[in-house]
């Protein structure tokens, strides 16, 4: 079982960015190691949290992607058609699972599945509380 946290991280490309930290490891830093320069939808010192993200993470709303996946990171221009880093999120018993991380591009319908990221299994009650606490001041 993995733990999820939302923390401010300083990466090589983004200063003061909120990120998903899974069992102590920044997901953004893993994405950057793969040479993708995308920003988290969680927001930063320069951009607000995408307000639809909470509902997508809690499986209360379908996201913007035609694939049904949840975009965690988006092109700096903010356009989903440019490309996103996404994951499949689903409920299994009392757990929330993130799996099949990859890059997708709505414009060209391009998809590239990443290896060695996930799947991550979170205890639903703890996961839900973390997600509900995302930028409560918004």
Note down, in words, how this protein is organized.
This protein has one domain (4-132). The mean pLDDT is 88. By secondary structure, it is an alpha+beta fold. It has helices spanning 27-33, 53-57, 124-132; strands spanning 4-9, 17-22, 25-26, 39-40, 70-74, 84-92, 95-105, 110-113, 120-123. The protein is built from three helices and nine strands, in the order βββαβαβββββα. Strands 4, 5, 6, 7, 8 and 9 form a six-stranded antiparallel beta sheet that branches. The protein has a three-stranded antiparallel beta sheet with strand order 1-2-3. Helices cover 15% and strands 36% of the residues.
Tally of DSSP helical segments: 3
Radius of gyration: 14 Å
Strand content: 35-45%
Mean pLDDT: 88
How many DSSP-defined strands?
9
What is the domain tally? 1
Query: Spans with pLDDT under 50 lasting ≥5 residues?
Result: none
Report how far the terminal alpha carbons are from each other.
30 Å
Describe the global form.
globular
The main β sheet shows up as: 6 strands, antiparallel
Helix content: 10-25%
Specify the structural class: alpha+beta
Helix/strand order: EEEHEHEEEEEH
């Amino acid at each position: 079982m993995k733990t999820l946290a939302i923390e401010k991280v300083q990466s090589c490309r983004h200063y003061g960015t909120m990120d998903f930290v899974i069992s102590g490891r920044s997901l953004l830093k893993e994405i950057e190691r793969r040479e993708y320069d995308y920003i988290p939808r969680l927001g930063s010192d320069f951009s607000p949290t995408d307000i639809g993200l909470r509902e997508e993470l809690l499986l209360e709303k379908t996201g913007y992607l035609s694939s049904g996946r949840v975009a965690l990171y988006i092109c700096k221009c903010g356009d989903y058609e440019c490309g996103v880093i996404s994951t499949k999120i689903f409920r299994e018993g009392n757990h929330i699972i993130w799996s099949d991380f990859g890059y997708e591009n709505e414009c060209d319908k391009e998809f590239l599945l990443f290896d060695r990221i996930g799947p991550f299994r979170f205890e639903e009650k703890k996961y839900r509380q973390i997600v509900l606490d995302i930028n409560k001041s918004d």
